[in-house]
Design a protein that fits this description.
Transposase IS204/IS1001/IS1096/IS1165 DDE domain-containing protein; Transposase_DDE; Transpos_ISL3
Length: 59
């Protein structure tokens, strides 16, 4: 726990902004997670064109 508290103190401005501001990057993180999951699932099995099509057509 001591190490975690030290880490938070190092970036106090970012922690404060994260707690105070109303916007979040959660939606972007969700899209990044989806793309990484697709990339892992298709690695070595499909062409880049199929990967690109799946990224652009799925919601």
């Amino acid at each position: 726990m001591k190490g975690f508290a030290g880490f938070l103190r190092q970036d106090l401005d970012a922690v404060t902004a994260g707690l105070r501001l109303s916007w979040s990057s959660g939606v972007v993180e969700g899209h990044v997670n989806r793309v990484k999951t697709l990339k892992r699932a298709m690695y070595g099995r499909a062409s880049f064109e199929l990967f690109r099509t799946r990224i652009l057509t799925q919601p």
